[in-house]
Design a protein that fits this description.
The chain is of the alpha/beta class. The chain has 11 helices and 11 strands. The chain has 2 domains: about 200 residues, 2-enoyl-CoA Hydratase, Chain A, domain 1, CATH 3.90.226.10; about 50 residues, Orthogonal Bundle (Lyase 2-enoyl-coa Hydratase, Chain  A, domain 2). The longest helix has 20 residues. It is globular and about 65 Å long. It is found in: Mitochondrion.
Length: about 290
């Protein structure tokens, strides 16, 4: 058990504590970066209700701490694959939970919890990165689209194939329709055919595509670059970005102009400008306090 929770002296948290490695998610935090791993390869890292609850808990854990600067979500490897992650990032909902064996109330709980997790990602005060190495389908594709940044290996693919089994991917369509051009999203939804990693990059579903052996390096590079900035400034900027995207142009500029003024009142807003003028590195407080 100790080996599962603290490999290499680092603190891992297993939400389903079991020596067999049955934990649905694993969480490790180091140097401001929290890695959250979907850890149910036997079910292709499906977003069961239990998995969604575990993911929510990992995202919210001590989220206001100044030590937390960025969250990275990935999927664990299948036994014997010999790879760090993959071949499936996340296959979407566990269809056994959506069979007629369960009642409508349970089905509603699954979709409500999924929507809660997806919207939570964009409301967190830190950037969330999807590190994708393999297939992301249905709600798994929704998860990628919901993250602030997505880095994918060249082997990754993205699909919303629910139409093929009589369950249209309506909730994944919410995130897809806000990440992709409408006609691209609808083609995915109507046909169930996957996008390659490079097609996903071309259409804006992912931020970057790299060779599989460079995925960890590139994700770490982006994460550590984010860690160099003020958490309070990033939190303000992230919240404002999503808020203004839902507005018309004039309203968006009105909102963001006021936020720029508010940003300048923050201790870190003034610290950054003073450091630039003085040609030194800023010393961030990461607090929401205003400059006195």
């Amino acid at each position: 058990m100790a080996a599962l929770r603290r490999p290499c002296g680092r603190s891992w948290r297993a939400l389903s504590a079991a020596c067999s490695g049955a934990a649905l998610t694993l969480r490790r935090q180091e140097g401001g970066v929290r890695n959250v791993v979907l850890n149910n390869p036997a079910k292709r890292n499906a977003l069961s209700l239990s998995m969604l609850r575990a993911l929510k808990e990992d995202l919210l854990h001590d989220v206001k701490s100044k030590e937390l600067r960025v969250i990275v979500i990935s999927g664990t490897r299948r036994k014997g694959s010999g790879r760090a992650e993959g071949p499936v990032f996340c296959s979407g909902h566990d269809l056994k939970e959506l069979s007629t064996q369960d009642d409508v109330k349970h089905h509603a709980q699954v979709f409500e919890m999924c929507a809660e997790v997806m919207t939570l990602i964009q409301r967190l005060p830190v950037p969330v990165i999807a590190k994708v190495n393999g297939l992301a389908t249905a709600a798994g594709c929704q998860l990628v689209a919901s993250c602030d940044i997505a880095v994918a290996s060249e082997k990754s693919r993205f699909a919303t194939p629910g139409v093929n089994i009589g369950l249209f991917c309506s909730t994944p369509a919410v995130a897809l329709g806000r990440s992709l051009p409408r006609k691209v999203a609808l083609e995915m939804l109507f046909t169930g055919e996957p996008l390659s990693a490079h097609e996903a990059l071309m259409h804006g579903l992912v931020s970057k595509v790299v060779p599989e052996d460079k995925l960890e390096e590139e994700t770490s590079r982006i994460s550590h670059k984010i860690c160099q900035s003020s958490k309070s400034v990033l939190a303000l900027g992230k919240a404002t970005f999503y808020r203004q995207m839902a507005q018309d142009l004039d309203t968006a500029y009105k909102i963001t102009s006021q936020v720029m003024v508010d940003n300048l009142t923050l201790r870190d807003g003034q610290e950054g400008i003073e450091a630039f003028i003085q040609k030194r590195k800023p010393v961030w407080s990461h607090s929401q306090d205003e400059k006195k």
